[in-house]
Amino acid sequence: MVIGAAARVAIGGCRKLVSSHTSLLLVSSQCRQMSMDAQSVSEKLRSSGLLRTQGLIGGKWLDSYDNKTIKVNNPATGEIIADVACMGTKETNDAIASSYEAFTSWSRLTAGERSKVLRRWYDLLIAHKEELGQLITLEQGKPLKEAIGEVAYGASFIEYYAEEAKRVYGDIIPPNLSDRRLLVLKQPVGVVGAITPWNFPLAMITRKVGPALASGCTVVVKPSELTPLTALAAAELALQAGVPPGALNVVMGNAPEIGDALLTSPQVRKITFTGSTAVGKKLMAAAAPTVKKVSLELGGNAPSIVFDDADLDVAVKGTLAAKFRNSGQTCVCANRVLVQDGIYDKFAEAFSEAVQKLEVGDGFRDGTTQGPLINDAAVQKVETFVQDAVSKGAKIIIGGKRHSLGMTFYEPTVIRDVSDNMIMSKEEIFGPVAPLIRFKTEEDAIRIANDTIAGLAAYIFTNSVQRSWRVFEALEYGLVGVNEGLISTEVAPFGGVKQSGLGREGSKYGMDEYLEIKYVCLGDMNRH
Ligand code: SIN
């Protein structure tokens, strides 16, 4: 099964190990000399023990069995940051075996014991907030402040599930016959395969591993090959916190092989994935022969709907946050900005002014609010969407091309007069481009917003309480922000409807994804 073809699960080629895994890399012909900032950050990370380049299997840091490696680069500069183990089928099978073995003891700990380990992991993540943030900026490109924000967000899932571990309650059901007692137990699913994306190198891992470990499951994580370093650093801190050998494994490298091993193994009882809808569908199909539980957090096509009665400032700020977080590279980013006739021109002007003030640059530079896109394929996709829109009559207000900084930087862009025959109104842009679409009535807005196979996040801006209720009830989406553009939090359920996915992450609902329900009927209770 090929799981690596889609945009958000990119696979690099493995190569033979040329130098020690822990050594920082020398610069290849296509890559620039490492900048001083990045170099000093890397050196600090190395001396703190957080720059890990081997996989974690059964509590041991290991090279790939054939010594192949994969390069991790800094998207802002093209510099190679590190050479990490490029693992495949054999390593994944060993990781699954160690997870399977660890499950027996980890699941038998009391919830309180597991909770303490998770709490220690949370404390360590927070204690190393700066270094983890630097790693995220280095391999993913987002501005350092945003990256440190991701560490706090990511760690919050570990803290939340450390607490939630103690609240996995069962039930006692009034019996149907007087000599019976009926119980419901909730028990961990077993070994979990977690496949995670590059856009949140930490938070998409902790949002899965937190509830998995809390409920008593053990996990094999496959982070994106583009951003494995944060995952490995987080795993190092998990070991320091007392997560026992095998309870958490990390393998990365050959995505199709790792995916196949996780999907075909009868010992893996659950697959959890964040990534593209195309890959999610393949995973779902491949999980069918062994009937695994599946959670999928897939692509979105989020509308941000600005009504005539909205507060202009609130709508501009909210849409800006919803669109340009992580340079537009989140599944909940506003993908279509629907603006009502009466406020369209005013909004277009105020919004473009705000977008103009965004600062594009290297994430380590003070003041940067927009980092690079993850790779050139991402920029090419944005370019194709913009060309398509312009060729069909849309007009660029600002931006619309690669940034003069080069590499994978793209100008924050606002395009007006976008209509439903343009690719960007149908597909996820995953970049810093905001298309403005005009609508007349509330009914039109709801129809346009729901006219998509996706259904993850939506945003509405209005000062009418009645309208907000009518619209959020009618929207076919898993998350809705009302007068708010940043709505993700560990305490609320995150997930989509329609082809945006299955299941929920975060909150008390996220725990159920890792639990099986067992019904027990105690018979013959009246016998003395
Ligand atoms: C995602 O883009 O997949 C996650 C975004 C979030 O957690 O807010």
From TrEMBL:
This protein's record includes keyword Mitochondrion: yes
Enzyme class: oxidoreductase
Catalytic reactions on record: succinate semialdehyde + NAD(+) + H2O = succinate + NADH + 2 H(+)
Gene Ontology MF terms in the entry: succinate-semialdehyde dehydrogenase (NAD+) activity
Active-site residues per Swiss-Prot or TrEMBL entry: E297
InterPro entries linked: Ald_DH/histidinol_DH (IPR016161), Ald_DH_C (IPR016163), Ald_DH_CS_CYS (IPR016160), Ald_DH_CS_GLU (IPR029510), Ald_DH_N (IPR016162), Aldehyde_DH_dom (IPR015590), Aldehyde_DH_Superfamily (IPR050740), Succ_semiAld_DH (IPR010102)
Enzyme Commission code: 1.2.1.24
Keywords linked to the UniProt accession: Mitochondrion, NAD, Oxidoreductase
Pathway the protein contributes to: Amino-acid degradation; 4-aminobutanoate degradation
Pfam families: Aldedh (PF00171)
Gene Ontology, cellular component aspect: mitochondrial matrix
One annotated GO biological process: gamma-aminobutyric acid catabolic process
Nucleotide-binding as UniProt keyword: no
UniProt-annotated location(s): Mitochondrion matrix
Occurrences of domain Aldehyde dehydrogenase (ranges): 61-520
Assembly: Homotetramer.
Assigned protein family: Belongs to the aldehyde dehydrogenase family.
Protein name (record): Succinate-semialdehyde dehydrogenase
